[in-house]
Amino acid sequence: MPTPGTRLADEFDRAAPRYDLLTAQNPGYHGALRDAARQLVARLPRRETWPTLWDLGCGSGLSTQALVEAAGREARIVGLDASAGMLAEAQEKTWPDGVSFVQALAQDLPDVARLHLDGPADGAFGAYLLRNVPVDQRDATVAAIADQVRPGGWIALQDYHVKGSPAAQAVWSAVCWGVVTPLSVAVRGNPSIYRYLWRSVLENDSTAELQARLERAGLTDVTWSTAGGWQHGILHTVLARKPL
Fold first, then answer.
1. What percent of the chain is modeled with pLDDT above 70?
2. What is the mean pLDDT of the chain?
3. Is 226 exposed, middle or buried (0-12, 13-18, 19+ CB in 10 A)?
4. Strand partners, 76
């Protein structure tokens, strides 16, 4: 029987061919990814070698590209995603030699890391990741991400967090039903995944709940920022450090 994770991956597979087209219609989407990637890389400890980074929930590679631009073309970046369709879109793009992709769930990161890296990474980036992880697995997933980052390294997570803010919830719902879903119908982009997007964001952790998860994983120096434009107070980036 398919698990919830595999069923969701199947939905993303069907959305993959039109995913980049739809995200391009979102003002600020790519800029927010680039800003979060720059924030992460700017905090990494100085080393003699180029950084090694995880891109968790990399999808079609848009976040991977943001990391390449921020960290440099010599960086080692491993993109991980559960959707074969999304990864197929990513792999069709041109990448530096240090970029690779693997199909897996974020929950399986410890096993994947043993196969793909020689040791802990310098940092990890997860855009629109944790709300796709079952609630009862989120603490373990955050802990696994922390375990795969070397002491002194950093984790950046970017996602929509509207729980606890009626105004943010109202804007989010208006955008989803007034813009995103109609666009997905128009371009045949698998509208069901965008209905799931609406619901998953409403059910996603609040910023306070995610902060508590980061702290339970032993991460420190937690800092938050929010995007501009219509995403202000809706799209958030959090950075956290693994102590030395």
1. 98
2. 93
3. middle
4. 52
